[in-house]
Amino acid sequence: MDEEAQMQTCHILDLPWEDVLVPHILCFLPLQHLVSLQRVSRQFHSLIQVYLANCRTFDLSSIGPSVPKEAFCSMLKDNKVLHSLCLSSCSEWVTDKELLPVIGQNQHLQRVDMSSCVGLTRHSLVAVSLSCLHLQHLGLAHCEWVDSLSLRSLADHCGGLQSINITACRQLKDDAICYMAKKCLKLRSLSLAVNANVTDESVEEVAKNCRGLEQLDLTGCLRVRNQSIRTLAEYCPKLQSLKVNHCHNVTESSLDPLRKRNVVIDVEPPLQRALVLLQDVLGFAPFINLQI
User: Fold this and answer.
1) Which long-range contacts link 42-48 to residues 24+ away (Cβ below 8 Å)?
2) In Å, how far are 163, 279, 283 from 273, measured between CA atoms?
3) What is the CA radius of gyration of the chain?
4) pLDDT(271) > 90
5) Burial 158-169 (b: 16+ CB within 10 A, else e)
6) All residues at 6 or more sequence positions from 57 whose CB lies less than 8 Å from its CB, including other chains
7) What confidence tens digit (pLDDT) does each residue in 197-216 have?
8) N-terminal to C-terminal alpha carbon distance within the chain
9) Alpha-carbon span 287 to 292, nearest angstrom
């Protein structure tokens, strides 16, 4: 009887690892749970290493600050099939030393997010541009180390780029952004926010070259004016979202045609803003016949 019961007992580790556990079970577990599983036993440690060597997505956004840099290097040392890599919460420890080997052996990466990784340098962006020729989505928000030469390298090698966030990359000026616009014609989403160097020249070049643009963030671009917004309206029929908050030289005269096309704009029309302010002062919204 005991022998029969033993034969019917099946442990999870008895299931085929690469055919069952890795593609159908472990892929649904959060990374922090996988890290915990490694500590259960040697077999579980080996299983998780097999998973990490074959995973297509590696996202540290939820546990990045608590991951030792040595653990990061160990987890990805055998992986050569990554499609997506997110390091947006790893600013406290990630440097070129940890990232460059991972980029070098993962040439199929399509999505990379290095936002706020202040410990990296332009060498990481150059490595991405040279190794990841199929890159489609790139996050570089608040990476002030991004400069003109590294962005040009990206544009030269990653022409299929569909979205890029270069918010607060304050070294970048019109020349680099215009160069990228001429090379990356498939751009659908672009953030140039919080960069006082951006002018109408950049916006117009993006509009004329990236005709499929759907989302554009110009928040805080103080030198952008109505002229480029009109060009945007003319050349980008697929535009869905435009952010121009704190762009004090952009007025309703250029935004109104976009509103009529149902483009979502992050600033209210002047009358709407006045009503909100009046409501704040009076405590209620007065009735105003808008058809007059």
Assistant:
1) 43/13, 44/13, 47/13, 47/17, 47/21
2) 31, 10, 15
3) 25
4) no
5) beebbbbbbbbb
6) 82, 83, 84
7) 999 999 999 999 999 999 99
8) 91
9) 12
The C-alpha angle with vertex 158 and arms to 191 and 172, in degrees rounded to 5, equals 40
pTM of the model: 0.86
Cα–Cα distances (Å) from 147 to 91, 122, 124, 143, 171, in that order, read 19, 7, 12, 9, 5
| Residue 180: how many other CB atoms lie within 10 Å | 27
> What is the C-alpha to C-alpha distance for residues 248 and 221, in angstroms, rounded to an integer?
9
Token digits of residue 96: 């070129």
Instruction: List, in order, residues 6 or more apart from 157 with CB less than 8 Å away.
Output: 129, 130, 133
Tokens 């892929």 sit on residue: 27
Greatest CA separation for the chain: 91
Q: Distance of alpha carbon 232 from its chain centroid, rounded?
A: 23
Beta bridge partners of 215: 189, 241
Contact between residue 161 and residue 154 where contact means Cβ atoms under 8 Å apart: yes
d(CA 177, CA 200): 11
Question: Which two tokens mark 157?
Answer: 């090698």
